[in-house]
Specification:
By secondary structure, this protein is an alpha+beta fold. The protein folds into two domains: about 130 residues, no CATH class; about 40 residues, no CATH class. The protein is built from three helices and seven strands. Strand 6 and strand 7 form a beta hairpin. The longest helix is centred in the N-terminal third of the chain and has 20 residues. The chain is flat, with a radius of gyration of 21 Å. The C terminus is likely disordered.
Length: about 190
C-alpha cells in the first residue's frame, strides 16, 4: 500500500513576477460510503450490521455533541478531535464580537499509532507538466516525518489548527509550493 501524490506544474504569481513550480497534493480516491465502512467494521468485529449501525450512529451523535461543546473527544485507535477557529484580532476589548470569527473547523490530532502507520507508508509521486503529461514518477525515500501542529513545529507547513483559538493572521497554507526553489531542485 502507498500514498499517491500528484505534483502538477502550475503558474504562481508573486507580486509582478510569474513562474512555474511543481505543486504537490494528495491524489485522493473517492470517499467511502458510510454503509461500506459499517459493513466492513461489522465483518471485522463479528457483530451484525444493525448493531454496528446503531453504534456508529450513537458514537457520531456523542462526538458531535461533545466536540461542539468545546471538549477534545477521543476517537479510539485514531486520535482526538476538537473545535477550532480562525478569527481576526482586535486591539480593543469593546470590538470583540462573534463576527470576527472567519472560520469554524474541527481539528483532528492523530494518535501516535496512526502517525507511525502514516510514517511507514510508502509515497509514490507522479509529476505532471503544465499540459497534463506525466514527466516523472518518484518513490519515497524520505524520513517520513509527520508534522504536528499542536507541538508548534517550525516547518512552516502546518495546516492551521493550532490551539483552536487563533488570534491573528491565518497561517494556513493554501496550494503548497515553495516559490524560493526552482523545478528540479531536491529531486
Amino acid at each position: 500500500m502507498s500514498i499517491k501524490i500528484k505534483a502538477k506544474e502550475r503558474k504562481l504569481k508573486l507580486g509582478d513576477s510569474e513562474f512555474y513550480r511543481y505543486v504537490m497534493q494528495p491524489d485522493l480516491y473517492s470517499a467511502l460510503a458510510a454503509e461500506k465502512v459499517i459493513r466492513e467494521a461489522a465483518l471485522r468485529s463479528g457483530v451484525s450490521q444493525g448493531v454496528m449501525q446503531a453504534c456508529w450512529d450513537a458514537a457520531g451523535s456523542v462526538i458531535k455533541a461533545w466536540a461542539t461543546e468545546g471538549h477534545s473527544v477521543a476517537l479510539p485507535g485514531l486520535g482526538t478531535m476538537r473545535f477550532g477557529l480562525s478569527a481576526k484580532a482586535v486591539a480593543d476589548v469593546n470590538d470583540v464580537k462573534s463576527s470576527l470569527i472567519r472560520t469554524r473547523r474541527i481539528v483532528f490530532t492523530p494518535s501516535t499509532d496512526l502517525r507511525q502507520e502514516l510514517k511507514d507508508t510508502a509515497i509514490v509521486i507522479t509529476c505532471y507538466d503544465r499540459d497534463g503529461n506525466i514527466v516523472k514518477r518518484v518513490t519515497s525515500t524520505d524520513d517520513g516525518v509527520v508534522e504536528d501542529p499542536d507541538t508548534g513545529d517550525d516547518t512552516g507547513e502546518n495546516e492551521g489548527g493550532g490551539s483552536g483559538s487563533s488570534t491573528g493572521t491565518d497561517t494556513s497554507q493554501q496550494g503548497g509550493g515553495n516559490p524560493s526553489t526552482t523545478p528540479g531542485e531536491g529531486d
